[in-house]
């Protein structure tokens, strides 16, 4: 009934658009991680303009001579124009606006499901409004002068938005996913996957606490002397680091069972191998942060991998649900 009422090519176009949108959201998470790691979050001390301009300046001479006093009166003391940080933050905003248009296009395209599965349409529209709220939250982050709690909330909402997008696209492709053969997977596979997702969320929660501590430490060190930051790490960092071993072996078990149980051309196999690669990459990035003096490039990579790991797990879980219903 589902395939008969909607053209197959139309369904494929929606899947492609949704997939592009999902990866675009991951890209903005990466850019946001770069902004945070480089300390460029206050590169634009106001919002939605940047130093009062829609296109930020490239030189301090383009600003009023008393701009320090102007922003001090607005609650942003020690505001110092830095063209690299300003344009890094401005690029982050431009990417965010582009994501907004992609989300809008995805929501508009989902209207084809109004007669077959209204939930898909409502989910896509909900994502659109959540992205709008995310934009408002971003302005609040700037207004709060980058309070760690607000930054963490901003990141967790991005994680939720991606999960909702993944579910929306998976639901729209349920007929395809129902053809997946999962009969050879162990009976406990689904339970282990759920446990793995819960562990990932716990790890992300601990990671945000570590990140908040790192922000505080970085501020105390004036964002230099990174090799000494590790001396001030809180206890939660060592729990976070040790817990990664359990996460590694759990996800490798999932990937191994998939590789051993499904066809080589199966979508599940690609997801399993991707999941293993993401976890290994995240741990390598984490080790470099711990042992190599907190290199800035490793911070956004570590953050992105954490988001991708949960996304891969959630998509795998959605695939299993629809495959089990055939």
Task: Briefly say what this structure is.
The chain contains 11 helices and no strands. It is mostly helical and 326 residues long. It has 2 domains: 1-176, no CATH class; 178-326, Four Helix Bundle (Hemerythrin (Met), subunit A) (Up-down Bundle).
How would you summarize the topology of this molecule?
Layout: H1 2-5, H2 8-37, H3 67-73, H4 83-109, H5 118-143, H6 148-172, H7 174-177, H8 189-220, H9 235-261, H10 267-291, H11 298-324
Helix pairs in contact: 2-4, 2-6, 2-11, 4-5, 5-6, 6-11, 8-9, 8-11, 9-10, 10-11
Number of domains: 2
Order of helices and strands: HHHHHHHHHHH
Strand elements, count: 0
Question: How far is the N terminus from the C terminus?
Answer: 14 Å
| Helix content class | over 70%
Tertiary shape: flat
- The overall pLDDT, averaged over residues, is 84
Oligomer: single chain
How many helical elements?
Answer: 11
Over the alpha carbons, how many angstroms does the gyration radius reach? 22 Å
Low-confidence stretches: none
Query: Roughly what fraction of the amino acids lie in strands?
Result: under 5%
Sketch the major β-sheet: none
